[in-house]
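Hi V.,

Quick status before I head out on leave. The structure for the redesign project is tokenized and pasted below; the design run finished overnight.
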């Protein structure tokens, strides 16, 4: 009969406080960018700039959702949530994707109205400069969030960073399109560009929802991470006859790792436990945010005699 190793407590994710602090700062940045983009829209009357500003409304809502989710995700495991609360980050990312889709639909409606009734733009150059300033802020903050999200393995921060990066690309396209509309006098270019922005945002929202749902469905860790786990098992498995049935899943910053370890029938519990401790310490040295369960089995449970199976 298999027996799990003693160290199965779900660790509190490292960097949780920093991630929540970054999410709170993101709310403030999003509000500043939103204000600048709406000023740009009011200065020009551009439907495309309106679409860009409307996406920033989503940024504010998404940043708030990410902050709440990160606060929840940082809570330690408890009686009702023995595996922790890290999946809360995925709900934030899904919510952000849904908000993006709703924003795209709203932008599409305005764009169609603009195509039916195109009009000249007012004071576009000053408005474009204001919008460009907002884009620069977004670009710098997106880079910071993507770096921090990768370092902290935070789905919520990564979702925010990717969304802001998409927003920057959208803003660049909008600025070029509105400038082209003014220089050429082709007024329908402005609403046509807004419609393209809507499709781009819609695709971005779909990508966020798809990735987040994968996390909610207990998707395995990425192949590179699994390769690292197998390497550690091979290097630190001295004394075991074999290891098999490796299973992994990830929930936010936490990785859950489970496998079976076969030992000689005459090996004592203490000796088997020592091997488990060595494996767990080695895995956590490279993956601090991991919860590890090792099922120790007797020799007759081996699947391949004399071979270390990973």
């Amino acid at each position: 009969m298999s027996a799990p190793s003693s160290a199965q407590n779900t660790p509190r994710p490292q960097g949780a406080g920093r991630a929540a602090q970054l999410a709170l700062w993101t709310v403030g940045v999003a509000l500043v960018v939103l204000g600048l983009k709406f000023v740009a829209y009011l200065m020009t009357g551009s439907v495309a700039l309106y679409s860009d500003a409307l996406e920033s409304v989503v940024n504010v809502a998404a940043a708030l959702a990410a902050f709440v989710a990160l606060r929840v995700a940082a809570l330690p495991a408890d009686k009702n949530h023995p595996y922790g609360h890290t999946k809360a980050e995925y709900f934030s990312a899904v919510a952000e994707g849904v908000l993006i889709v709703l924003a795209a639909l709203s932008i599409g409606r305005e764009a169609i109205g603009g195509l039916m009734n195109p009009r000249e733009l007012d004071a576009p150059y000053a408005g474009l400069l204001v919008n460009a300033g907002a884009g620069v802020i977004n670009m710098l903050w997106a880079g910071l969030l993507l770096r921090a999200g990768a370092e902290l393995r935070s789905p919520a921060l990564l979702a925010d960073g990717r969304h802001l990066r998409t927003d920057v690309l959208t803003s660049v396209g909008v600025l070029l399109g509105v400038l082209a509309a003014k220089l050429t006098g082709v007024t329908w270019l402005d609403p046509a560009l807004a419609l393209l922005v809507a499709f781009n945002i819609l695709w971005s929202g779909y990508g966020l929802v798809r990735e987040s749902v994968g996390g909610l469905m207990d998707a395995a860790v990425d192949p590179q991470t699994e390769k690292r786990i197998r390497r550690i098992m091979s290097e630190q498995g001295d004394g075991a006859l074999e290891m098999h049935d490796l299973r992994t899943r990830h929930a936010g910053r936490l990785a859950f790792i489970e496998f079976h370890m076969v030992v000689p029938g005459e090996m004592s519990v203490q000796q088997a436990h020592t091997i488990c401790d060595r494996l767990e310490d080695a895995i956590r040295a490279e993956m601090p945010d991991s919860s590890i369960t090792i099922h120790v089995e007797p020799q007759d449970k081996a699947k391949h005699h004399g071979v270390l199976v990973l």
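Above is the designed sequence. Strands lie at 3-4, 242-251, 254-262, 290-297.

G. will cover questions while I'm gone.

Best,
W.
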